[in-house]
Design brief:
By secondary structure, the protein is an alpha/beta fold. The chain has helices spanning 13-21, 39-43, 58-68, 81-91, 104-119, 142-154, 213-226, 236-240; strands at 3-8, 27-33, 48-51, 72-74, 95-98, 125-132, 162-164, 178-184, 190-198, 201-209, 232-234. The strands form two sheets. The protein has a six-stranded parallel sheet with strand order 2-1-3-4-5-11, sandwiched between helices. The model has no long low-confidence stretch (mean pLDDT 96). Nicotinamide-adenine-dinucleotide binds at residues 8-9, 11-15, 33-35, 39, 52-55, 57, 75-78, 99-102, 138, 142, 215.
């Protein structure tokens, strides 16, 4: 039988893209829920709950998923590290995929970044640059947050090593800092560059998204994959069988 989903954030950019692609993948949108709609009635209808609304809504969506014992796809970004840690504990009570980016290409970028960060010493200054459309509400992007997490883990650094932009006279760059710069403008779907710069050479790993369909297809693929899995939080590396990045 074809899979059905309850789509939360259905009138948003991602919600509309998911709804238009779903039938092509033989997936039915059993309930389309946005602001002002009845969330609890909506999430009860589909086999899998797919949430691309707003980060402040995630806790409530997880609560419903756990009460209904339904698999869940979390697409929203913008949670603080502390918020995410708390939400992960609850989300693990159902089969849940939570990825800051559902595109295949970005998940390969994650794997390449991990590989580079493990080989390159701290003589290679690591900086992450991201650009998104003017309407994006959170910064840095969830994708950038994951790239930063990968670099911090490889270098055994904590979140205090992050430099969110620079201004004034911040002084010379230290070896232990990792820079993050968020650009906003126009209709950019999502660009991410990871840079490792050392005296004499520079490596840049770049991914550019030009169509939201890549996230929507990935999220729908994750919805099919998670249905019937054991409770626990998975990421796109699991869905794609890429191993851990
Ligand atoms: P958007 O602002 O266009 O859409 C969000 C929608 O959610 C809006 O229609 C809004 O009315 C709705 N919404 C807000 N509060 C709600 C509530 N309480 N109940 C139901 N609906 C509610 O944003 P977007 O560009 O579609 O992005 C949505 C989220 O997905 C953002 O957090 C964005 O960063 C994230 N995103 C993730 C990925 C990924 O691959 N993980 C890719 C793109 C976007």
């Amino acid at each position: 039988m074809a899979l059905s989903i309850s789509l939360v954030g259905s009138r948003g950019r991602m919600g509309q893209t998911i709804a238009s692609l779903a039938p092509k993948l033989d997936i039915t949108v059993a309930a389309a829920v946005d602001m002002g709609d009845d969330l609890s009635a909506g999430v009860a209808k589909g086999d899998v709950i797919v949430d691309f609304s707003f980060h402040a809504v995630t806790a409530e969506v997880i609560r419903h998923a756990v009460a209904l014992q339904k698999p869940l796809i979390i697409g929203t970004t913008g949670h603080s590290i502390e918020q995410r840690a708390k939400l992960l504990l609850e989300a693990a009570k159902v089969p849940c995929v939570w990825a800051g980016n559902y595109s295949v290409g970005v998940n390969v970028l994650n794997a390449l970044t991990q590989q580079a960060a493990q080989v390159l010493t701290d003589d290679y200054d690591a900086e992450v640059i991201e650009m998104h459309h003017r309407y994006k509400k959170d910064a840095p992007s969830g994708t950038a947050a994951r790239l930063l997490e990968i670099i911090l883990q490889a270098r055994k650094l904590g979140p205090e090593a992050l430099r969110h932009g620079r201004e004034g006279i911040p002084g010379e760059r230290t070896r232990s800092e990792v820079g993050i710069h968020s650009l906003r403008g126009g209709d950019v779907v999502g660009d991410h560059t990871v840079m490792f710069a050392a005296p004499g050479e520079r490596i840049e790993l770049t991914h550019k998204a030009s169509d939201r369909g890549i996230f929507a297809r990935g999220a729908l693929r994750a919805a099919c994959w998670v249905h019937g899995k054991a409770p626990g939080v998975y990421d796109m590396q699991d869905v794609l069988g890429l191993g851990q990045a």
